[in-house]
Amino acid sequence: MTEDNVDDLIRRVRDGDLRFHELEEHADADTAATARRRLVESDAGVDLDAVGAYGFPADRADANIENMIGAAQIPMGVAGPVTVHGGAVEGERYLPMATTEGALLASVNRGCSVIDAAGGATARVTKSGMTRAPVFRVDDVAEAEALVEWVRDNEDALREAAEATTSHGELTDVTPYVVGDSVFLRFRYDTKDAMGMNMATIATRAAAEEVEAATTASLIALSGNLCTDKKPAAINAVEGRGRSVTADVVIPRDTVEERLHTTPEAVAEVNTRKNLVGSAKAGSLGFNAHVANVVAAMFLATGQDAAQVVEGSNAITTAEVREDGLYVSVSLASLEVGTVGGGTKLPTQGEGLELLGVAGGGDPPGSNADALAECVAVGALAGELSLLAALGSRHLSSAHESLGR
Ligand SMILES: CC(C)(COP(=O)([O-])OP(=O)([O-])OC[C@H]1O[C@@H](n2cnc3c(N)ncnc32)[C@H](O)[C@@H]1OP(=O)([O-])[O-])[C@@H](O)C(=O)NCCC(=O)NCCSC(=O)C[C@@](C)(O)CC(=O)[O-]
Ligand SMILES: NC(=O)C1=CN([C@@H]2O[C@H](COP(=O)(O)OP(=O)(O)OC[C@H]3O[C@@H](n4cnc5c(N)ncnc54)[C@H](OP(=O)(O)O)[C@@H]3O)[C@@H](O)[C@H]2O)C=CC1
């Protein structure tokens, strides 16, 4: 196949000879993206030169995007270095963060600085498993009960079917939920260093075919929304999804007073009245100040699925005055991270992972994704500490006036 050039591609689209989304079948990825961008510029009457000034070969993104016209560039900074005493990571790390929110890096950086002055933060992944929950239709609840019993008696057959689709993933368990003539089967997988959504979805499709072949159930949707992917859901807050990870630290009183310009008592009261009482009254699923800020920024910097900030921000912050200072913890119930697959293969995202020392597959498998989760949790802890202190010292608005405008 001869390679069309940009003008040929544009002409052929205009003539109705080529479909707008098929240009990569007739030219290299960069030529296709350029032709598509020129078509958009012409149709919309805009100039997209900055979008077109991307710094990587377009074919590196062939598994990450369709209808490519270029790349969005987001400012990227680092917070830290901060010392992480994790189960899968030990030592000082710069935390890569991509954001457009002024004052955010300064705030997380201040939190890291204070945490480091206290000797570093402890972090642990307490639970792990990526879930996919298809929904099946049955005739009635009696048939639902029969299906639940079949699943319990045949989990090994489901495991064999699911694991035949992957050389890394392992089916951990299958939990049924019955609602009238709907049966949801929540499959949970150990996806090692992959975030695992493609892996789990492909594996569950194979398992669902086993269910349909052996029972009277009909698969209605491979995702029945009880997984629960990219939507706020209590099941993720309680059961977890991806990694459940906690980070904590004790900051000495004098450090709180000298570096955070407030007191342990004030921070603890802000946390109680804001993150616990305020969130409860609001009916929030997360009981925290801005964990989403850190999750989003580190997700963008390291090639995670940005839409899964919804679950990643599902976190509880605690703060209490202790004899030796201020104890603060952040527990993220459903942080979905991977160090292989998805966007982790793209150039700047891969460099973000390299900066954390977690790029690629870990030894043992899964340990790099655990380490990434621990680093994100410490970043969230730093952000909570700094923002709660700023609220306690009444510096929030001035910080954004000076840094965010
Ligand atoms: C802005 C600060 C940090 C000033 O805080 P400060 O204590 O006045 O700053 P400082 O000049 O004394 O420096 C202290 C440390 O802050 C860091 N720092 C200080 N300045 C910078 C800078 N330019 N760049 C990088 N780092 C900076 C740096 O680490 C420095 O220590 P050092 O490392 O030098 O020993 C503080 O006032 C602060 O953190 N404010 C809170 C701002 C914040 O957290 N914003 C993000 C959340 S806003 C939002 O989106 C969520 C919200 C609020 O809507 C959610 C909700 O409803 O709660
Ligand atoms: N399909 C869906 O419904 C959804 C998909 N997504 C997208 O899914 C992507 C993430 O899916 P994910 O499955 O993580 O990524 P990929 O689809 O990129 O697959 C990652 C693959 O890497 C291989 N692999 C190599 N080394 C390892 C290792 N150490 N640990 C684990 N796997 C390894 C595995 O292949 P093998 O399995 O062959 O062994 C694994 O399946 C993101 O792009 C996300 O946006 C997000 C939400 C929903």
Q: What can you see in these coordinates?
A:
This protein has helices spanning 6-14, 29-44, 49-52, 104-117, 141-153, 155-163, 197-214, 234-239, 253-259, 264-282, 291-302, 309-312, 347-356, 367-392, 396-403; strands at residues 76-86, 90-98, 121-132, 135-137, 170-179, 182-190, 218-221, 242-251, 315-322, 325-335. The termini are far apart. Helix 1 crosses helix 2 and helix 11 runs antiparallel to helix 14 (367-392). A hairpin with a 2-residue loop joins strand 9 and strand 10 (325-335). Strands 1, 2, 3, 4, 5, 6, 7, 8, 9 and 10 form a ten-stranded mixed beta sheet that branches. It is an alpha+beta fold and 405 residues long. The mean pLDDT is 97. The protein has three domains: 3-61, no CATH class; 76-128 and 236-402, 3-hydroxy-3-methylglutaryl-coenzyme A Reductase, Chain A, domain 2 (Alpha-Beta Complex), CATH 3.90.770.10; 134-221, Hydroxymethylglutaryl-CoA reductase, class I/II, NAD/NADP-binding domain (Alpha-Beta Plaits), CATH 3.30.70.420. The structure holds 3-hydroxy-3-methylglutaryl-coenzyme A and NADPH dihydro-nicotinamide-adenine-dinucleotide phosphate. This is 3-hydroxy-3-methylglutaryl coenzyme A reductase. GO terms for molecular function: hydroxymethylglutaryl-CoA reductase (NADPH) activity. Pathway: Metabolic intermediate biosynthesis; (R)-mevalonate biosynthesis; (R)-mevalonate from acetyl-CoA: step 3/3. Belongs to the HMG-CoA reductase family. It catalyses: (R)-mevalonate + 2 NADP(+) + CoA = (3S)-3-hydroxy-3-methylglutaryl-CoA + 2 NADPH + 2 H(+).
